[in-house]
Amino acid sequence: MVAACLFAADAVAREPVTLEELQTLASQKAWAELLERAEDLPAPKRTDAWRALVTDAATADVESLPPSDKEPFAASQRARALGQRYAFLPKAPRFATARDQGARKDLQRCLELDRRGCIDTFLELTPDVGPEAALQAAHLVKQGHFAYVAMPLFAVAVGGGKDVSACKDAALAETVIAALGLPKEDPRAVQARKVAFEGCWAALGPKLKAATVGASSYFLANTCQPMRARKALTELQDELCKDEAL
């Protein structure tokens, strides 16, 4: 109760700030103080110039937080908090670039420390990550793990688009084929089917057809029905699929 009263009193006591004062803080590179005071500018005066100052401060703030052994996702956590506080930030290119670069470094440090849940934490803290950053993150993960482990990140790199540039990535193709070898209900197999048959069919179709002969029952269970629907199976491949309960 005492703490709440003190906070309320402090909020009442704070004086409004002017845009000129915020600009002075920016010229001094006093980014932390600028972010602390930015919302003290009355809402009607929060112009494009104000948003640019906040973007500069937030970008610099995120860039100043390298990952550490204690908290490998420091930059990602800060970027997430700032993006929630200022709704326009995730759409600001400079901030988004700093956020994505910081998130990739955070993920790399988490992997180096062999922590659990690195991918889940990366995706939770960076839900707006761009396709290129997601692709780079997927490559980081694939280097030291079974190929299918990186499937969630490759799925983000493809997103909801069709035949995007990521579809031509050789590592993505390898990961999709590996994930299609998992049980049908595995989330990574679900993501692989979406990428293979909705997002990247033009690029991956020939590779999937080639992988059908000699494939595991899991792979056939994941691929036979959608490939048959696309009339992509040879007579031999169709025979292999007949034994699968789809």
Task: Quickly list its features.
246 residues, mainly alpha, 2 domains, 14 helices, disordered N terminus
Description:
The longest helix is centred in the middle third of the chain and has 20 residues, at 93-112. Helix 3 packs across helix 4 (48-63), helix 5 (74-85) runs antiparallel to helix 6 (93-112) and helix 11 (187-199) runs parallel beside helix 13. The protein starts with a helix and ends with a helix. It is 65% helix and 0% strand. It has 14 helices and no strands. The protein has two domains: 17-129; 148-246, no CATH class. It is elongated, with a radius of gyration of 24 Å. The protein has helices at residues 2-13, 19-27, 31-37, 48-63, 74-85, 93-112, 118-125, 131-143, 151-158, 170-179, 187-199, 201-212, 217-229, 235-242. With 246 residues, it is mostly helical.
